[in-house]
Amino acid sequence: MTPTLDWDDKIAVLRLGEDENRFSMRFLDAFNHHLDEIEGAGAQGLITTGGPKFYSNGLDLDWLAAHGDQMQEYVARVQAMLARVLTFPMPTAAAITGHAFGAGAMLAIAHDFRTMRADRGYFCFPEVDIRIPFTDGMAALIQAKLTPQAAVASMTTGRRFGGGDAAGLGIVDAAAAEDLVVAAATDLLRPLAGKDPGTLGAIKRTMFGTPARALTSVAAD
């Protein structure tokens, strides 16, 4: 499946899909197309969400196994997407309705806010257990958004955090019942409606300039 776009008044709700929502080339194309559309429509907020089982499992490892010669290009595209969300010129929130693993969890971290289902689903950076080190850009992204304690707990252990544990460490802003995760994200964004996108985008590019540059520099290597 590919992402689809809904609206809640002037808040864009970008639904990643009902499957594992891995970042295929088709997914990346559709995701960026919708971000273009959202910016062009003058939205006042962006929420991304998944299905009841998965928010996103991140990298398309099957595609990578079959296209190893394109790994650098693929990673550059994924990291460019993360950098774009990190500096997106409007308030953003990830409504994590299911599992968020690896680069899928990084996509959630790239948002301004995160809400997560309390009763089911895990947030996890499994890289230490699957022997895939973080890139400089991915590490910079996570460390820019989490406290040192939360970064160590999530990056070096491979631990799977439920919604309550994730909220306790500040990985997410709130845990909610399954049918309230998107509503909780919307509640975080509504008071922020009307922020000037040029000003907010400039602030985010300054706040997160270091991780954004680290994420996009791979394209120039």
Structural notes for this entry:
The protein has 221 residues and is an alpha/beta fold. The protein is 47% helix and 16% strand. It is built from eleven helices and nine strands. The strands form two sheets. A six-stranded mixed beta sheet has the order 1-2-3-5-7-9, with helices on both faces. Helix 1 packs parallel to helix 3 (71-86), helix 3 packs parallel to helix 4 and helix 4 (103-110) packs across helix 6. The radius of gyration is 16 Å and the shape is globular. It comes from Mycobacterium saskatchewanense. This is Enoyl-CoA hydratase. One of its GO terms (molecular function) is delta(3)-delta(2)-enoyl-CoA isomerase activity. Keywords: Lipid metabolism.
Give the topology.
Elements: E1 4-8, E2 11-15, H1 25-40, E3 45-49, E4 54-56, H2 61-66, H3 71-86, E5 92-96, E6 99-101, H4 103-110, E7 113-117, E8 123-124, H5 127-130, H6 136-145, H7 148-155, H8 163-169, E9 174-176, H9 181-189, H10 197-207, H11 209-216
Parallel strand pairs: 2-3, 3-5, 4-6, 5-7, 6-8, 7-9
Antiparallel strand pairs: 1-2
Helix pairs in contact: 1-3, 3-4, 3-11, 4-6, 6-11
